[in-house]
Fold each of these.
Amino acid sequence: SIIVKVYSIVRNSRIYLVRHRMGVCMKLTKMHGLGNDFILFSDSQGANKDYTDLAIRLCDRRTGIGADGLVIVVPSNTCDVRMRIINSDGSEAEMCGNGIRCFAKYAYEHGEITKDTFTIETLAGVMKPTLTIENGIVTQVTVDMGKPFFNSKDIPMNVTMDKVIDVDLDVNGETVAVSSVLLGVPHTEVFVKDITKAPVTTQGPILEKHDAFPSNTNVNYIEIVNDHHIKVRTWERGAGATLACGTGSCASAVMAHEKGLTGREVDVELYLGTLHISYLEDGTVLMTGPAEEVFETELPIE
């Protein structure tokens, strides 16, 4: 990967990406998982910090570094390490599939973790990544994402169903059939014939905050290619349209199988590449894919 030191100054946003000759700097790493991008750093005192303002400033794509969110390494009392995810709007997410692959690569390559399999504490529970390592570099990450929850109370969704599949919702006068599942975070799936015509940026934000979802929801549009290949586009809760969504890819593969449209091994085609999702017989979901480092920089602490 290319390591770049950023020396430009963006004064009006108070983000000074320069190396101070004196003073303490926060080291930041920009990473992405198939285009879903994050700013990562470690904070030993970050367990309860409010990162709202920092996320909004740094994630702005015009006046900041630009990212879909912050991913922060903090200590854990129950696992090897803990991950916090702060969306670009400042809200905190329970989990993020692409983010956790970036987190796992970052933790290993920056010496936070020395094992190739370890546990990560998240707000969605314990996640277990396994690293593929070549010459000290993490090339692939497989994450045990746990099991999906289908009951409407768990998602949550304002209907009473053991499994939320093909529920009609009114979206500005249009009837849209949705299926929903909790897989780390709430996900709602809409199946389309042509992914290039999916109304991600128009219908997505309306569904995200639809009255049916008291905690809001991520929205995934899915095109079935065949029984082991699907295409997915996502409107992410708190981040908007993203190039990839790991938990969304998992939720889409799970729901495609639950509807009888695919098998349990599915390649999920995204804008910049493919994730492989395994939906095991016991309900466990495994996600395998890459994570890449883009650049490193420093931010003076004021």
Amino acid sequence: MATLSVLYFFDVKEDQEQVFIENWTNLTALIYEYQGSLGSRLHKTEDGRYCGYAMWPNKELWEHSGSSVVASQQPLLGVS
């Protein structure tokens, strides 16, 4: 089964990290439930950035879900 993995990198303001994590978690749950993703993970890198990755059954479903547009055009609270 072929899947699509999508990487996202974020610079998060120090005082907004908890809000960012909560928003990532809530948004991921909605996308999983209603848009067909296979879930995602969020990690903090050694240089202090956040790296999130999401898995999708295929590229077409990811594009159809609108996640590609949302990720590139709408900043999340706490992201600089």
Amino acid sequence: YRHRDFIINMNLLFFSFGFVLSLGELYLRFFYLHPSNVSFSSNSEGIRMPDNELHHTLQPNAQSVVTWGDLAPVYYTNSLGFRDKGRRTVQKTTESGYRIVVLGDSFTESLGVEWSDTFIFKLEQHFKNDGFNSEILNGGVASLSPGLLLRKLRRFLHQGYTTDEVILMLDISDIEDESVFYM
């Protein structure tokens, strides 16, 4: 009988522990970390804005100094709200013959980096030097998770824009962003 009581008590202990963890998880997800409870105010950068579908994004056709530590590069966005070399209107189809859309988080956005030092600019220059005429769109936004980037790509395509290639840049923080902040 002792063995049977021990097994019953252990099962109750594990069930209770699991139940408490589940309640804690629900509390954190719906009352503490839910994106609707995360305040997003207009910051001094003047370039980021809240978005109902993507949580946050970059403002279209904006120009602002974005401070990141001691760095303060000038940011420009195009008509899509993608970081770019300057303010411009992006056409539905590219005039260059080949379009690549790069999606990712702060690494892709190149947070704190002058445009001429971003890997997007350097990749486009590399292609041009090799005689390959292409347009590369930087769809990176700091802290966007893969699920939100998929929504961003769908929005881009549903608005009638075309691309020949999509590159998704992932990093280890995307796992936490996806599971904790954006569910």
